[in-house]
Design goal:
Structural class of chain B: mainly alpha
Number of strands of chain A: 13
Number of helices of chain B: 23
Strand content of chain B: 5-15%
Oligomer: heterodimer
Strand order of the largest sheet of chain B: 1-4
Number of helices of chain A: 11
Distance between the termini of chain A: 85 Å
Radius of gyration of chain B: 28 Å
Radius of gyration of chain A: 22 Å
Order of helices and strands of chain A: HEHEHEHEHHEEEHEEEHHEEHHE
Helix content of chain A: 25-40%
Largest sheet of chain B: 2 strands, antiparallel
Number of strands of chain B: 10
Structural class of chain A: alpha/beta
Strand content of chain A: 15-25%
Shape of chain B: elongated
Shape of chain A: globular
Distance between the termini of chain B: 74 Å
């Protein structure tokens, strides 16, 4: 066997490395994880009946390790309030706050729900998911969530002792950095002490959706599933296929292959919600986008409504918000599918709703 | 009498220091080049102009001004390089050129000095290329600037090296991320490299393998002669070499001390130390690397200042060569302009916002900065879309990346104005193409199922894609209501995000074509 010098070895290594690199680039084209839609989408399948829950008390999915007792706290237990999405006696199921200061109405809505402490325990890792879908416009155009709403939530979470509060979204138009900057959310969150995270491609993994009726596996951002508390902060917007972009639709930001969701969109959004279930939803309706959503771009389409809607039940919060557009939950396919799966109630009139004017 | 301090005096005690200094400057210049390249990105900030090296490039500057018929102030910095060359010779090549540095670092073969170099005549190839480039520039064509060493290196790093590195790192990250204990360090690593060294999103460039092979070829020529590229081919080297003919600082040999040991001749990376001429070097070929200083056992070599014209060599330009290159340039430009692309534009030749086809061909120096800065990597090097004349000019390929509605970076980084500097507001109005739906493939049109992705993505405030509700019988015989997209041509700006996001595999069902003048757009 021929002996080779180190120099020769390095030379060959470099040649092989260059070869492998160019080969690798070619091979990795189109290697996006393939989601697996269920072969025959049938929303009216028989097993639907068995999963509809008699009461609309969702199981806290954001905290899978928590003992079941925490989900149903004793009515008298006030000494150590357990952080749980489920409303305790006295807490509103749905809070609607109106007023000119976004920060004040977020605080008022959370107070009505029983305080942020109901959701966030000291030491928790919190992820806040606003809608930062494009880098095109400032928040006044109502395409992205109001920065003050997001920052107030960050402040509240940190005040409740959260170890870490991360804010993230993956825009479809423009880069995350640009979108964070132009929406004003980046600056506001950092000033409040939160972190902006650029969603990294390595954290998406194909994940089973056990309750999924149409899709049973999809690439989902793992941190959202692993976080102690996941807070959904959509802005209420028009959307031509989903009718409205609200809390459930906002969850599209935590997955890959979004265009693949658009077949049977309503059911697929509900399937996704059953997996990435927010512990708290705060709908930003300070400004709402009445038309040409989700991208917007014209102030003529923006309506100032100075409202936030908050609940642990994303379906209820979304259904209430639909009324701001002159619609009901029944007009939004994702809400109908979500209610049918027992993810929450569209009938916000039947639960304890507190309306506050600040 | 007071003796003038020259390099000669310094050499006696510190001759190795000069070589070390040169090597250090080379490394710093290469790192600076790469740093500025990485800083050429949307929102990137560098402490020096990101296009500093192109500004210092007199070949790109002079030809861009000739072909564009106008003064480009920022490229006047190339004059500094020419002045430097008049004083010190081809120091650019030996000390600063990042491609030259990489060539120095590539394993090489030294020529044997004891007999004449049979390839010496090849040195005139670079002069020929230089004159062809100049004459073609006079005729308004900059195609051959693809041979400029700076554009060559910048383009290769942008199109081939960085995307490959990114693909490898991303694949490694994703593989390692499955192991729990590695997740925290990987996250730290990822946050450290993304947005700086590596882009946030992966990029896929056409012809990346071709460009890598061209570059490897340039390096591989080192196996025939060290710095083969710089000796025989580099048009910028040729230009600087001609100025070096009268450069002040010269290589001198003290013939009384020289023992004709041939060490310097064997070591010279450009092979210009000629044993047949008492070891004299041609200043037009010497890159001032100073390796010979350190090699001389009798310290017979010095670099001293002296004005005057260096002797003309056999490979130096002759009137005949100038005439031949003029003929070649005229014939070449004629051939390029008679190509089909000049008759009928390619249907998908989508140019960066504001760039007009003729302007682009006579102003684009092929530097590749727009490709590097484009956040979606939608700007790609063209191959034959605008004929061979437009080789490696930027063209938007929407299926690979769209023109971001929040970005106007390409016009900001273009050093020659081939892509005009527009404000974000102006850029949003600029029509670069028009989208057209293929009703035979579009899901709502062909299959009777809802989709609407293109309408959702459209960034135009009034939406250039609108939906029509239609009751149709779908392929399963069911009567359903679907939303069919239609493009409003008057509103479409051709950004291509609809084509990029179309969920169909392979070719999109909505494609961007060149702007349609019938629709009343410029």
């Amino acid at each position: 066997m021929n002996e080779i010098t180190r120099r020769e070895f390095m030379r060959r290594l470099l040649a092989w490395g260059l070869g492998a690199a160019s080969a690798g680039t070619q091979l990795s084209c189109g290697s996006e994880p393939t989601p697996t839609p269920r072969p025959t989408p049938r929303p009216t399948e028989a097993r639907a009946a068995s999963t509809i829950q008699p009461t609309f008390t969702p199981v806290p999915t954001a905290r899978p390790t928590e003992p079941p007792a925490a989900a149903a706290p004793a009515p008298t237990s006030t000494s150590e309030p357990a952080a749980t999405p489920t409303p305790r006696p006295g807490d509103a199921y749905l809070a609607v706050a109106r007023g000119e200061s976004p920060a004040a109405i977020v605080q008022a809505a959370l107070r009505a729900l029983g305080g942020i402490e109901r959701f966030v325990k000291p030491g928790d890792d919190v992820i806040v998911k606003p809608n930062i879908c494009v880098a095109y416009h400032t928040y006044e155009y109502a395409a992205t969530t109001n920065p003050e709403v997001v920052a107030t939530l960050v402040t509240l979470c940190l005040g409740a002792g959260a170890r870490r509060v991360r804010v993230m979204d993956m825009p479809f138009g423009g880069t995350p950095d640009q979108a964070y900057a132009r929406s004003g959310i980046g600056e506001a969150v950092q000033a409040a002490g939160g972190e902006m995270e650029v969603m990294s491609s390595m954290k998406y993994q194909n994940t089973d959706i056990p309750q999924g009726r149409d899709i049973t596996r999809w690439p989902v951002y793992q941190d959202v599933l692993k976080a102690d508390v996941f807070i959904d902060v959509p802005i209420a917007k028009h959307h031509s296929l989903a009718r409205l972009t609200l809390g459930m639709k906002n969850l599209m930001g935590v997955i890959q292959n979004r265009s693949g969701m658009h077949v049977n969109l309503g059911q697929r959004i509900a399937d996704l919600t059953s997996l990435a279930r927010p512990a708290l939803t705060v709908v930003d309706a300070v400004r709402i986008l009445m038309d040409h959503g989700p991208t917007g771009g014209s102030l003529d389409d923006v309506k100032l409504t100075n409202t936030v809607i908050a609940s642990h039940d994303v379906v209820a919060a979304d259904a209430y918000t639909a009324t701001l557009f002159g619609l009901t939950g029944a007009d939004v396919p994702a809400l109908v599918a979500g209610a049918a799966m027992g993810l929450g109630t569209m009938d916000w009139g039947s639960v304890k709703t507190e309306e506050i004017n600040v | 009498m007071k003796r003038k301090i020259t390099l000669y005096d310094l050499r006696i005690t510190h001759y190795v220091v000069w070589r070390r200094l040169r090597q250090g400057v080379q490394a710093v210049a290469l790192l600076l080049f790469l740093y500025l390249l990485l800083g050429t990105r949307q929102g990137g900030v560098t402490f020096l102009p990101h296009d500093l090296f192109f500004r210092l490039d007199p070949l790109a500057g002079l030809t861009a001004m000739l072909a564009g018929r106008r003064w480009i102030a920022s490229l006047a910095l190339g004059g500094v390089t020419l002045l430097l060359t008049l004083a010190l010779g081809r120091v650019w090549c030996g000390w600063l050129c990042p491609l030259g540095t990489l060539l120095d670092w590539t394993p090489l073969r030294r020529p044997r000095a004891d007999r004449p170099d049979p390839l010496t005549g090849w040195r005139q190839v670079k002069h020929f290329l230089l004159f062809v480039i100049f004459f073609a520039a006079l005729l308004g064509s900059l195609t051959l600037l693809v041979l400029d060493p700076l554009t060559l290196l910048f383009r290769t790093v942008t199109v081939a090296a960085l995307p490959a590195l990114n693909a490898l790192v991303t694949a490694a990250e994703m593989a390692l991320y499955r192991f729990g204990p590695l997740q925290a360090p990987l996250e730290l690593f990822d946050r450290a490299v993304r947005g700086g060294l590596l882009p946030v999103a992966p990029s896929f460039f056409g012809q990346n393998v071709l460009l890598a092979l061209v570059f490897v070829g340039v390096l591989a020529l080192n196996a025939i002669r060290s710095r083969f590229w710089c000796r025989y081919l580099c048009p910028l080297g040729a230009l600087l070499g001609l100025f070096s003919k009268v450069a002040w600082l010269r290589h001198r040999v003290d013939e009384t001390a020289c023992t004709a040991c041939q060490r310097c001749a064997r070591l010279c990376p450009t092979g210009t130390i000629d044993p047949g001429r008492h070891f004299a070097a041609d200043p037009a070929e010497c890159t001032l690397c100073l390796d010979c200083l350190a090699s001389c056992p009798t310290k017979a070599i010095a670099f001293r200042g002296r004005w005057g014209l260096a002797p003309w060599r056999g490979y130096d330009p002759s009137r005949r060569q100038v005439l031949a290159s003029l003929g070649a340039a005229v014939a070449g430009v004629g051939l390029l302009r008679a190509a089909p692309a000049a008759r009928r534009e390619h249907p998908h030749l989508i140019r960066p916002p504001g760039a007009r086809e003729n302007d682009l061909l006579s102003k684009c120096i092929r530097c590749g900065q727009c490709l590097q800065v484009c956040p979606t990597a939608g700007l790609q090097p063209s191959l034959l879309e605008s004929g061979l004349e437009g080789l490696w000019t930027p063209v938007l390929v929407p299926r690979l990346g769209y023109c971001d509605y929040s970005c106007h970076a390409c016009g900001q980084v273009c050093p020659t104005g081939a892509i005009p500097q527009l404000t974000l507001e102006e850029k949003r109005q600029r029509v670069i193409g028009v989208a057209t739906i293929d009703q035979n493939r579009c899901i709502p049109w062909a299959d009777g199922c809802d989709c609407i992705v293109c309408e959702e993505m459209c960034p135009v405030p009034e939406k250039a894609i609108r939906l029509e509700e239609q009751t149709v019988v779908n392929c399963r015989g069911e009567t359903v209501t679907v939303h069919r997209p239609r493009v409003i041509r008057e509103l479409c700006i051709g950004c291509g995000i609809c084509e990029y996001q179309c969920p169909l595999h392979g070719e999109a069902a909505i494609r961007v074509y060149v702007p349609n003048t019938l629709a009343g757009v410029p």
